[in-house]
Amino acid sequence: MPITAIDVSSRVKKLLPWIVAIAFFMQSLDATILNIALPSMANDLKVSPLNMESAVIAYMLTVAMIIPICGWVSDRFGTRKIFFTSVALFSLGSIVCAVSWSLPILIVGRIIQGLGGALMMPVGRLVILRVYPRDEFLKVMSFVTVPGLLGPLMGPTLGGGLVEYFSWHWIFLINVPIGVIGCFVALKFMPDLRSTIASKFDIFGFLLFASAMLLISLGLEGLSDFHLKPMMIVALFTVGVCCFITYWWHALRTDHPLFPPSVFKVRSFSLGLAGNLFARLGNGSLPFLIPLLLQLALGYTPANAGMMMIPLAVAAIIAKSVVQYLIKFFGYRWVLTTNTLLLGMLICSFIFVTADTPFIVLITLLGLVGAINSIQFTAMNTVTLFQLEDEQASSGNALLAVIVQLSVSFGISFSAILLVYFNGERPTSVSIDILPAFQATFFTVGLFTVFSSLIFYFLPKYIGREYKKKIRH
Asked: Where are the membrane-spanning stretches (predicted)?
């Protein structure tokens, strides 16, 4: 779709990756801090630790539902206004979360955060996709995610310290000054890109697609909480699947569908989406599972659990610096197939983690998980968008963002269901008795990830492999 770039000077082009990185930093900091704080928040709000999954999923599901309008509102109102609004909403939601006195109020705050987060990163990534040529896209995206990884590096330690020595409320309040800076930077430097052609928004398709996501997610929540009757869960899944099928029937028969079916003719895009959906069910559950394992099963304090996450974040940053070279030398097919297989095996290896596991072994395991996860995220995201044409970029980018959020949400629900099943009942206190349930959950999630590596084997053989191109020419 044609676009008009306003004030995209060389200075702004240099600053743009940092602007998007601020948004990524806010989101990643919030996510890592929240996961460390879940047990303490559960105790204060008088709910079970595993019941706190709803606070995590509420955010991700809201993001997934709102993202489909990302391209349309950006084209209609301009990327600068939408990016500013998204940062402001995220900051407002953080304030609501900080003053929450019950789980329902916390969920409301997380939904408001989700409204901002739904547009924050997709709009930033869309601007980068449109401003930079394809041969610079991988390099710029890798750079953007490196500053953003400071969130996971600082989050666990900062969050653990705040929870242990102050209160969990501060994990949300620290977003506010970052949000103020983000709003200022967005107004001053964010390029105002918008479509020169008025496009129609597929309201009916959006309602069908959003309903499908909501109903299926509620069905998964019902499985993990045991609060819904089996017939109700079956009904939610059935109606959700019917909405999804109806959406694609509608998309094939309308001139301006929410997600044009033609975009799936790009093989790397289709396989990239499938890989994102299934592979992320495994690695997307790790930020939820690992802090709970450390605190509930191994008896770590919030501060100590936060410190244990540092090797994971440091390894992720280091791996980001080499991923583009791995892809250029070996290609997406080899990197993603091998890396997903390694990731699944690492997740399975948590079955051997106990309270007696040597410290150096646990640190090494977490570091390896961080490095492999980092390569996985960058490679999956870029291969999905790598071969899209300019007119496909907006819808393709939005659909990728939806799938990412859905897969992580489903991964957390899936792991919570497994924990409940293997433990027999929800844990209400720190106890070593829950360790076997965690071990079985990690093994099951890891095994699922191992099988998902087969998806990437069907990628075009030499896509992204510049070394092979030089040899052939």
From this structure: 15-36, 56-75, 82-101, 107-128, 140-162, 168-189, 201-220, 232-250, 271-294, 306-327, 334-353, 359-386, 398-422, 434-459
